[in-house]
Write a structure and sequence with these properties.
The protein has one domain. Helix content is 43%, strand content 19%. The chain contains two helices and three strands, in the order E-E-H-H-E.
Length: 54
């Protein structure tokens, strides 16, 4: 198992953050958040660009 944690954070005014060892889980949850809370359709590719390793 890869020990690297991956994280995506929303705008600070929103406060959403997802963090996991699983990149697919991070991008999936972030895409779902963007769609459900902000009515935004964001591609997995664009979410991967926002992902940070922690």
């Amino acid at each position: 198992m890869d020990k690297t944690m991956n994280k995506i954070e929303c705008d600070p005014s929103c406060g959403f953050m997802v963090q996991s060892h699983d990149e697919k889980e991070v991008t999936g949850m972030a895409m779902s958040h963007a769609k459900n809370m902000h009515k935004m359709d964001v591609s997995e590719h664009d979410m991967r660009k926002r992902m940070m390793s922690v």
